[in-house]
Amino acid sequence: TIDPSEKDALLHVPGAGLTFDEQFFGRDKADRISGLTNSTNGSALGNTSRMNPFDRLQLYANIFKPPEIKFKDLEAIVTTKLSYNLLPFRFRTDFVRVTEDSVLTPITMLLQNKDLAFQEQQGIHRAMIHVYGKITGVNGRVAPGGVFEDTISQDIPDALFKQLLEGAAIHQKIIPLRPGLYKLDLVLKDINSGNVGTVSQRLQVPRFPDDKLQLSSLILADLVENLPPSQIGSGSFILGSNKVRPNVNDSFRQDRNLNLWFQVYNLKLDEGTKKPSATVETLITKNGREVKRDVEEASLSLKDFEPGEYSVQVKVTDNLTKDVIASAEKFTVR
After folding, report:
1. Longest CA span, the chain
2. Which residues make Cβ contacts (< 8 Å) with residue 164, sequence separation at least 6?
């Protein structure tokens, strides 16, 4: 409401909630509002410009309007449906359940250093990329929290510049969304070169119902580590109590480990122990032939794997209900 009198619960209760003037000088309650425009007592009530209904409507609109867009040039690319491929990048989306009606959606972007324009200053080579993202529903409305802007800064010391040009810059934004169908628009701009890369893609956010065994996205990660309690919260690459950095290319070196991250939902609790009981099995195949099979293993060494394309499947069995659910992803060993 924009009428301040509606906030006075005792305005229409005789003899209740009286002000000092009403109690000792016999003034009428009705004068509280109507008297605001009376020049005789206007100074006692302070500045009355806030009582103007148009000013209050403008204040209401300003409070609830979305944040002002900083990168308007990137927003224009989305709204005018322009497509650029001068700045190549890759991205992936994953889905982690919060509730049946809320899903964390990490959007992870990867840029190769060799595609960026670096400027050297005081022995440091720096590249800067502006990121603009927009998530809209099928009705054309922007999803709550569906517009985001970030800046990626990649700094490389002069002594390591040539070596690290083969590396990459990785960035992540986590958006909570309701299950449903969306469109994801991403625009990345290299500030030093002016090169722009865009993508517009369908985004299907799954529903994780409460009444059946469910799995989150299966994330193949370069890094999975437990966080101390002081660092648990929201932020890039933070999922629950873990820091998870996805491998966007799904490509792993032989001297690195393949880290698997996923969550299991709706396991039945044992009536005696009040704990779930499940078996997690990991199967890796190449060209349809089994290469390795493990139980309860979330990090796999790749040193014995020949270069090539593989598939990894994670199967979870609820030992109490015998329900089974599985998820699979492909990856490359180089």
Report:
1. 94
2. 113, 156
State percent of the chain over pLDDT 90: 65
DSSP string of 94-124, one letter each residue:
--EEEETTEEEEEEEEEEEGGGSPPEEETTE
pLDDT digits (tens, 9 = 90+) for 223-248: 999 988 888 777 899 998 899 999 99
- How many angstroms separate the CA atoms of 310 and 287, rounded? 7
Q: What is the CATH number of the domain that holds 325?
A: 2.60.40.2550
Q: Is residue 41 within 8 Å of residue 22, measured between CB atoms?
A: no
- What is the distance between the alpha carbons of residues 208 and 221, in angstroms, rounded to a whole number? 22
**Domain that includes residue 38, residue range:** 24-65
13 located within any domain: no
Provide the pLDDT for residue 172: 96
Q: Tokens 């720096």, residue?
A: 126
In a domain, 29, yes or no: yes
Mean pLDDT computed over every residue of the chain: 87
Instruction: Quote the tokens at residue 234.
Output: 């929201």
pLDDT confidence band for 126 (50 / 70 / 90): very high
Residue 48 has pLDDT above 60, yes or no: no
Domain total of the chain: 3
Are residues 109 and 222 both part of a single domain?
Answer: no
* Nearest-angstrom CA–CA distance, 241 and 263: 12
- Look up the pTM and report it: 0.76
What string of DSSP letters covers 148-190? EEEEEEEEEEGGGHHHHTTSEEEEEEEEEE-SEEEEEEEEEEE
Query: Which token pair is 135?
Result: 């998530």
Is residue 262 over pLDDT 90?
A: yes
6 pLDDT higher than 60: yes
CB 97 within 8 A of CB 266: no
How open is the CA angle 33-37-43, to the nearest 5 degrees?
A: 100
